[in-house]
Design brief:
By secondary structure, the chain is mainly β. The protein contains one helix and six strands. The protein has a six-stranded antiparallel sheet, with helices on one face. The radius of gyration is 16 Å and the shape is globular.
């Protein structure tokens, strides 16, 4: 069985682009609780985005998924989701997804900057990575 260890969220919705939030998942169960607007749904949507590459519904092609540049008093905001999990064979894997939202004069532009799958080769001990440029990592 695959197990999720940690997730880093930076620049997604109410999570500030200036500091990273790390969420640790404990076995056998992790409860996500909080008041309205605390980011519970954002955590679940980030899990889904990291695993499948799908943006949440009603995010206007990613525009409302990334922290608003106007709120940050910037012209662009870079966001990142990192998810560390173990495969059913115990192999550690890290998924990294990076995004950018740029404020133009009349509109905003959303871009997926990078998507990477990273693991460690059991035989050599070296890190191995596959980017979306080399393979379709969403399948």
């Amino acid at each position: 069985m695959c197990t999720v260890e940690k997730m880093l969220i930076k620049g997604i919705r109410s999570f500030s682009p200036d500091n990273q939030q790390v969420i640790e998942f404990y076995r056998p169960l992790t409860l996500i609780v909080g008041s309205n607007g605390a980011g519970k749904t954002t955590i679940i949507e980030c899990l889904k985005q990291a695993c499948t590459g799908e943006l949440p519904p009603n995010t206007r092609s990613g525009h409302s998924f990334i922290h608003d540049p106007k709120v940050a008093h910037e012209t662009e905001v870079k966001a990142q989701i990192k998810l560390r999990f173990n495969t059913s064979s115990g192999q550690p894997v890290v998924v990294m997804r990076s995004f950018q939202l740029t404020q133009r004069k009349t509109n905003m532009q959303f871009k997926t900057l990078d998507s990477v799958l990273q693991t460690i080769n059991k035989e050599t001990g070296q890190k191995q990575a596959v980017t979306y440029r080399c393979a379709d990592i969403d399948k």
